[in-house]
Amino acid sequence: MQTSILIVVAAFLTSILSGIFGMAGGLVFMGVLAWLLPVAAALALHGTIQFASNSWRALLHRRHIVWPVLLWFGAGAAAAVGFFSLVLFAPTKFYVFLGLGLMPILVWLPEGWLPLDAANRGQALGGGFVSTGIALVAGVSGPVTDMLFINTRLGRHQIVATKAVMQAMGHASKIVFYGGVLLSAAARDAIPLGATATAILASMAGIMVGGVILDRISDAYFRTSRRWLVTSIGATFLFQAIRIAVG
User: What is the value of pTM for the model shown?
Assistant: First the structure.
C-alpha cells in the first residue's frame, strides 16, 4: 500500500514538471520507480504511465503538434526497436541511475556544437533512433530528444506538444520490451492494477496543472529554468549511481 501511494503521488507531481517544461518529470519519476521496484518492472511501469501521460499532454496541446517532424522521428524510433530486439541487454539500477545522472549534461553543450533542428529530416530520423534506444536502456531520453530543438524556431507550446508525441513513442517501446514483467504474479502483488490506473489518472491531472502554469510563463523563463532543473536532478541521480558502484 505504501509503495502504491508513493507511486501515485510521484506520478502526479512529476507530471506537473513535464506539463511545464516538457521534460524533467520523466527523469524524476523513473528514479523514484527504480528506487522502489526491480529495474525491469520499473521500466515497464514507467513506460505504461508515461505513455498515458505524454499521450494526454499531446492531446491537450494537439493544435501545436508539428506532424511532419514526427514522421521521420517515428521512422528512427522504429529502427531502434528493431535493432534492440536483436540485442540481449539486462538493465541494472546502476545503469539506470548512471544514465539518468549523465543525460542532463547534454543541456549544457554549446548550441554551436550540435545545431540540431527537428525540422531536418535526417536529424529527426537519427534523433528518433538514438533517443528511443536510450529510453530502452535508461528509461528516459527527454534531454536527448530536447537536443533536436536547439536550433528550432518553434515556440514553447509547439516544443512541448511535439516532444510529447516523441516521448510517447519511446515509452511505447518500453511497454513492448518490458511490459510482460507487469503480468507476473510478483509484479501484480507489488503493483496492483488499481494503483497503476490511479497513477495514470494522477499523471493526467498533473499534466493539466502543468499546462496552466506553462501558459503563464515566458519563453525566456521556459528555456532557462529547465536547464538548471534537469542539472540538479541529474546530479542527484549521478550521486546515487556512485553510491551503488562503491557499495
Answer: 0.80
